[in-house]
Amino acid sequence: MRAMQWFKSVLMGIVLWGAIALLSFPSPSEAASPDPYVARYLRATEPIPLELNGQGETRLFSPVELSAGKRLFEENCKNCHVGGVTLPNPLVSLSLETLKGANPPRDTIDDLVAFLRQPMTYDGTEEALECRQVPEAWMSRDQLENLSAFILRAAQKTTGWGTERF
Fold first, then answer.
1. Separation of alpha carbons 55 and 36, rounded Å
2. Element (H, E) at 60
């Protein structure tokens, strides 16, 4: 009798744990749906072209990919780059103008991916201590491209991104 009660309570615990786990994780359709911010502020309801490299090649990024980039930004960058401003160094923001003026420039997907793999100071003379290096073991190339696409699109379209006034 006691064994049966123990078995029932363990079984109920497993069922309850499973239900909580299912409710805690987004469904595949939720994970693949665009963030409303992307449509409203980045004005991306369809795939949009972003400059891949300095040779003028572009790549289309879907609203879902931009949303994935936004999630990565919120999880990993937002503490220092609220609204595109750089809190450790307010003179170097994530505005398009500032990204273009860096040495080397950081205004294409490939440029930002290279920077995230090996962060350098704005003038390119030494390693940047304020920004963490992002190895392949942490984020894949696709993840870094989505993150970079979010940053570039926000710099292009979001009013106040990287400025003192939001």
1. 32
2. strand 58-61
Taking only the tens place, the pLDDT of each residue in 9-19 is 444 444 444 44
Phi and psi, residue 123, nearest 5°: -85, 0
Tokens of 75: 């999880």
State residue 58 phi and psi, 5-degree precision.
-125, 165
Domains of the chain by residue range: 1-27, 33-157
pLDDT tens for residues 15-70? Answer: 444 444 444 445 444 457 899 999 999 999 999 999 999 999 999 999 999 999 99
Question: Could you say which of 1.10.760.10, 3.40.50.300, 1.20.120.80, 1.10.1200.10 is the CATH number of the domain covering 33-157?
Answer: 1.10.760.10
